[in-house]
Design goal:
The chain has 7 helices and 8 strands; from the N terminus they run βββαβαβαβαααββα. The protein is α/β, with parallel strands linked by helices. It comes from Tistrella mobilis.
Length: 261
């Protein structure tokens, strides 16, 4: 399938969700949630690989892109609230939830919320990418107390997904720092007790990069403890942002998760 580009819209005029126009009648829905600092545009390359039978929706969190004027949120709960309410405004259909890095954390909490409410939007499969399971140790706490220059330098040293041009332009970086800080605070302070975390009744598929130092492949297997259904893991070449190198292959694997139901 060749990549295509179309106009993206907000279904139901809801600012929390966006996706390609003309897909509302598709039998399946794929909800994608981006990484820290990322916006809906991170998943625009996926449009041409999903096809007309999949309604591609992407979460658009406050503080970025079309929602840049809004203050970014630094807690998981209000993000989950916003996404759950947005989904409730849509007609239910079989849904996959995919989240990368911070998005995987949000995706799990959203899935747990929807399952707990017996929502018709509860996912058929949860796909988590580039993120260790709830309760895993985090090394992000040391970033929170750094000044702006130190914070930007630490991001440049640890992560390969932030554009070099942005990191090199301190004035431009200063514009985006509040959102980045809020996102990293959200991740660093997400410390649930694994024993208290619900086990989902849907399968979980864990994806990762072979060279990801933030979510090493062997650490992804802990996600199997958060489902009472099936679990699978698949590793791709690359680091933390492996999914940018071969989106066609990643999307194909994500959509194949429909068969895990």
């Amino acid at each position: 399938m060749q990549p295509t580009a179309s106009r993206w819209v907000q279904p139901g005029q809801d600012r929390w969700l966006t996706g390609p126009a003309g897909r509302s009648a598709a039998p399946w829905r794929l909800l994608c949630i981006p990484h820290a600092g990322g916006g809906a545009s991170a998943f625009r390359p996926w449009e041409g690989f999903t096809g007309p039978d999949v309604e591609l929706l992407v979460a658009q969190l406050p503080g970025r892109e079309s929602r840049f004027p809004e203050p970014a949120l630094d807690r998981v709960a209000p993000v989950v609230d916003g996404l759950a309410i947005a989904l409730d405004r849509l007609a239910p259909k079989p849904t996959l939830i995919f989240g990368h890095s911070m998005g995987a954390m949000i995706g799990y909490e959203l899935a747990a919320r929807l399952v707990g409410e017996a929502s018709p939007h509860a996912p058929r499969t949860l796909i988590v990418s580039g993120r260790t399971a709830p309760g895993s140790s985090s090394t992000l706490g040391d970033l929170l107390g750094l000044d702006d220059a130190g914070f930007a330098d630490a991001l440049a040293a640890r992560y390969d997904g932030i554009p070099a041009a942005l990191l090199a332009d301190r004035e431009l970086m200063a514009v985006f720092l509040p959102t980045l800080r809020a996102d990293f605070r959200m991740v660093a302070e997400y410390r649930p007790d694994p024993a208290a975390c619900p086990r989902l009744p849907c399968p979980i598929l864990a994806l990762g990069g072979a060279d990801d130092i933030h979510a090493a492949p062997e650490r992804l297997t802990a996600w199997q403890d958060f489902t009472t259904a099936g679990f699978m893991r698949e590793i791709f070449p690359g680091g933390h942002f492996y999914l940018a190198a071969d989106p066609a292959r990643v999307v194909a694997r994500v959509l194949a998760a429909r068969g895990m139901v």
